[in-house]
Every structure is written in structure tokens, then in C-alpha cells.
């Protein structure tokens, strides 16, 4: 994987891809599939603000042909701190594009984007305790594993542990 830019704003022609994430259990995989969701919700959000709101956003992760093959998202909810100090990020890459370093590169670029264009001091990420590939990806992107919440999520008919990661603006980041 090269260090080419893999992130771009979502476009209207990406909406069928976003709909796939709401209708195809295989697209998000066993660690993220929440069940079927409102397919039109993604279109409504895109029409509202193109997924680039003041406190949350989502952009496309692209392949060599600039086609959307995943998404990265961020949100700032405050949780005891002023909005904009802490962002939680997430990622989804469709199965046919996993395992090539694209997720790690996308997360690194999103981290750079948030630290360059927001007042973020802290970026957080969570992942399923069994999602070892995502845990490696977060660590390669510079995150520190900070904790484990037992039985925090319910996916696929059972409870799962959630692993918490954090990255501060002042932390060294791999290049």
C-alpha cells in the first residue's frame, strides 16, 4: 500500500455503496453488523450536509480507481468536555478490500485531518474484543490500548467485550 490519499468527501454516486452497508450483513462483517437499518437514513444525512456536520462527519475510503470501498467517521459528543476536544472515530472497509493496509492508512489520514482541522486534543476508537485485525490497525496508527469493557456490545446474538483506544495530539505518531 502506498501513502496515496485514500480519503475524499462522499458524493451522490456513493449512495448505493452506503446503502450496501445498511442491507448487506457481509459488508460490515461479524464485528460491526448491527442488523438492518433505515436504508434512507444515509441518503437523508447526505442530503442534509453531505456527512460533513459541525460535530460529526463521514468520508469515503477509496481504492486506486477512486471508488468508495469503505468509510471513516468521527463524532464529538463532549461527554464531560467541551465539544471538539475529543473525537471518536470509526472505520468500515468492505471484505474484498481488507487485509492490505488500507484501513491503517485511512485511519492515519483521518487522524492527521482531525488534528489539522479541528481543536481535537484526543481521538478515541473502540473495537470488538475479538477484532484482532482492527486492534493491530489502531496500534499501527499510533493509538494506545487503554481498557477493556466486558460485555459492552450485543452483536450476532451475544454480548462482546469492547476494547478502548486513545491518541493525544501530543503523542508521537508513526509515519
TrEMBL record:
| Gene3D superfamilies linked | 3.40.630.30
What name appears for this protein in its UniProt entry? Answer: RimJ/RimL family protein N-acetyltransferase
Q: Which GO terms describe its molecular function?
A: protein N-terminal-serine acetyltransferase activity; protein-N-terminal-alanine acetyltransferase activity
Q: Give the keywords, sorted.
A: Transferase
Kindly give the CDD domains that the UniProt entry links to this protein: NAT_SF
On the tree of life, the source organism's domain of life is: Bacteria
Q: Supply the Pfam families for this chain.
A: Acetyltransf_3
Q: Does the keyword rRNA-binding apply?
A: no
- Cellular component GO terms, alphabetical: cytoplasm
